[in-house]
């Protein structure tokens, strides 16, 4: 039998999801599509802060108490704690109070609907009431053997779960389901494997300043990529000032850095997601210095608020991991 590339699309975690994979039998392809869709739905149901019945919401109701947790929650919390330490707290999963105080207190489609019906004056007044200096105790006392955690502040895991769900499914499909070629893309968090040398997977890089257009195309054979942006999820805050979802934990306010958008590529989707967010939060200079000091075999394409584009990465990983097509690298600022 000839192996054929199958594709399906779904929506979960408030984002569009696309999965492509190569298998022989049509029946196996249908079963795999159902499995993948169920995986993303279950992941959303477990980790969302917008459903009262989710495991995350249950943990947030029991702040200060030691709670038993699922294997999946344990895995994500250990990853979150690792990257909190790796980024010196710039990635912090314990910012739920701050993000809700800024106005992001419901799923984004509901937030957009509220803004469409509410007056600017009412939204600004509500935001002014919420703007206070929030002190966060970010400790997570995790007991891996007991599979339990004691929290001191409520969690928002939206900054890591999407990348984790993509990477976890890709690993399972490769290792357990013996899928030799595949692509998983959840709103820009991407994992690919098995592309032949002559025909890499192609993924468009959204143009940050020209809506509906692409800046270039990323070609990947094996690995991952993630894009983070301050331009997408925005809403009205205090005094009508626009807010976005990338909070700087040093100020507890949406980042005012000199980065609009960042794409990171490398071996792991979670790391790509974390570093893309960090660079957006702390800015070009500090972000790329941290990125160079802490990562190997990763690359970053950074779009500054001044409309300048920066590339950071070693040529070794650039040649083996990814190639940027139709991107003016020769005109960019190299940090290699």
UniProtKB/TrEMBL annotation:
Pfam families cross-referenced by the UniProt entry: ApbE
Molecular function terms, GO-annotated: metal ion binding; transferase activity
Residues that, per the record, bind Mg(2+): 159
Domain of life the protein comes from: Bacteria
Catalytic activity line of the entry: L-threonyl-[protein] + FAD = FMN-L-threonyl-[protein] + AMP + H(+)
Key words, A-Z: FAD, Flavoprotein, Lipoprotein, Magnesium, Metal-binding, Transferase
Family: Belongs to the ApbE family.
Cofactors: Mg(2+); Mn(2+)
Cofactor binding note of this UniProt entry: Magnesium. Can also use manganese.
Enzyme Commission numbers on file: 2.7.1.180
SUPFAM superfamilies: ApbE-like
Protein name as annotated: FAD:protein FMN transferase
Organism expressing this protein natively: Paenibacillus taihuensis
